[in-house]
Amino acid sequence: MLPCWCSEEEDSLPQISKLSVLALADEPILQIGLRSVLSGAPGIEISGIHASVAQAAGSARENPPDAILYSLALDPELAQIHVMRRIAPDAALILWARDFSTELAHQALDLGIQGFLSTTAGPEAVIECLQLSVNGEIWMERSLASTMLNSRPIALSRRQGQLLGLLVQGLKNREIASEMGISEGTVKAYLTTLFEKVGARDRFELALYGLKTLRNTRSAAAGRDLRMRNQVRPRARAGVRTVA
Fold first, then answer.
1. Backbone angles phi, psi at 94, to 5 degrees
2. Which of 47, 56, 159, 177 has the fewest CB atoms within 10 Å around its CB?
3. What's the rounded mean pLDDT across residues 157-178?
4. What is the pTM of this model?
5. 33, 81: one domain
């Protein structure tokens, strides 16, 4: 059973008072739907919706946005993502598509994408994705996160593995800091790195990854022990003495 964590006040991130959103979409129904959702959201404004990367780039250069909804349909290979990153380096880049392959999602994370928003998402999910991505968090639907966590191994340092083990036990930041002999600020820095490295959206998903990693580690250790026993048995039959 997974432990339950309470949200920690010190982990909260500052909120932006007025969030400016620039979007890429060439389908009229998506444009209408997005305007309808965001026009009724307090603290959010649409700086523009454009049907090409070139048009969006020009708009971003003139009025730098806080978030960019980047249509995967207009750039399926992410070949022009660097253009938007160069023009609006401080904006949160959010991929916008019906669905995402795990390989593309991993590639997108390496390129600095902070959100993965489905075009079928409801209004609440759209607003949550924008707000959290702008605040520096990585946002994706839980199904995509689970698939990514199981898709390929991720190498962790010894300290990252130690922190992950303590997180799985349900310890809070200050308790983890005490156990590891480091400051709470260092714990937060480790967690930020782990969120990005693993592709987890929150502590719950990071703990799921930790549990899976621990299970795999134990299984690997058990497999090594079994192979060692199997290797010893033939020698014992061949006359190797064992001492009780």
1. -125, 120
2. 159
3. 89
4. 0.57
5. yes
Work out how many domains the chain is built from and give that number: 2
Helix axes 184-198, 173-180, angle to 10 degrees: 100
Residue 61 lies in a domain: yes
Q: How many CA atoms lie within 13 Å of 58's alpha carbon, on the beta-carbon side? A: 6
Instruction: Round to whole Å and give the CA distance between 87 and 56.
Output: 10
pLDDT of residue 70: 94
Q: 40 to each of 109, 127, 131, 173, 183, how far by Cα in Å? A: 30, 10, 15, 37, 42
- Cα 24 to Cα 71: distance, rounded to the nearest angstrom: 5
- Same domain membership, residue 109 and residue 42: yes
Within a 13 Å sphere around the CA of 18, how many CA atoms are in the beta-carbon half?
5
Say how far apart CA 84 and CA 70 lie, in whole Å: 9
Same domain flag for 24 and 121 = yes
pLDDT at residue 208, rounded to an integer: 82
pLDDT tens string 55-84: 999 999 999 999 999 999 898 888 889 899
Range of the domain at 137: 17-149
**Token duo for residue 240:** 């190797």
- Residue 115 forms part of a structural domain: yes
Query: Do residues 99 and 62 share a domain?
Result: yes
Q: Is residue 11 part of a domain?
A: no
Residue 101 shares a structural domain with residue 138: yes
- For the stretch 6-24, pLDDT in tens is 444 444 444 446 899 999 9
Give the per-residue pLDDT at 211. Answer: 80
pLDDT tens digits for 159-168?
A: 888 898 899 8
109 CB-side CA count, 13 A: 23
